[in-house]
Amino acid sequence: MLDQILNLVKQYGQQSVVENPDVPNEYNNQVMAETANTITSGFQNMASGGGLQNILSLFTGGGQSQGGNGILSNPIVSMMIGHLANRLVSNVNLNPATANNIASNLIPSVLNSLVNRTVSNDPQDSGFNLNGLIGSLTGGGNSTGSATGGFDFQGLLNQVSGQQGGIDISQIIGQVTQNAQTHQQTQQSGGLANLISGFFK
User: Fold this and answer.
1) Where exactly are the structural domains of the chain?
2) Which residues contact 122 (CB under 8 A, 6 or more apart)?
3) pLDDT at residue number 25
4) Cα–Cα nearest to 134, from 179, 77, 94
5) Distance from C-alpha of 99 to C-alpha of 68, rounded to nearest angstrom
6) From CA 8, how far away is CA 115, in angstroms rounded?
7) pLDDT in tens, 50-70
8) In Å, what is the CA distance from 88 to each residue of 39, 75, 76, 82, 126?
9) Stated pTM of the model
10) What mean pLDDT do residues 41-50 have?
11) CA dist 83 to 32, 42, 55, 88, 167, Å?
12) Rounded distance between C-alpha atoms, residue 105 and residue 75, angstroms
């Protein structure tokens, strides 16, 4: 699922970054890498901190029916916008107004598209799968069998809008949190950051 996120950042970054006169061309790839890193690490931090329900809420009521603005009410989104703006000021030396403008446009656009395509039944969106996302956060790849005790998050998305219907979600959250923490520790060497920066070259 990481590839899909990187491709969405590249797609929406064309207008917000590449065609933005306030971003020097030599910084385009760095800005997009920071954006992808903010999104992936934001999801990972949320998962390892016990915030699986916040991630699920993004996909079960995250604004796909309300357009891009509805998604802004999710705490994950506002956290990522603030984080990215700070990173663009400190790491890319953009002025704060430009950094805020890019973060406020790019993060919601990418996440809204990610949500819409993940909940879509369109065959061309089959690569967007919540199991794949959560699997990538917990080290389970596209299979969540070992990562979440075999729970089918995509199936939950397809049948539920707000209620878990007899599922013990707390046990699943505990399992995902534990696996995400373990996976995060094994990635401290910078493997994910290197992969992302390699994509935007």
Assistant:
1) 2-199
2) none
3) 94
4) 179
5) 19
6) 11
7) 777 778 888 876 444 444 456
8) 14, 20, 18, 10, 32
9) 0.77
10) 83
11) 14, 9, 17, 9, 33
12) 16
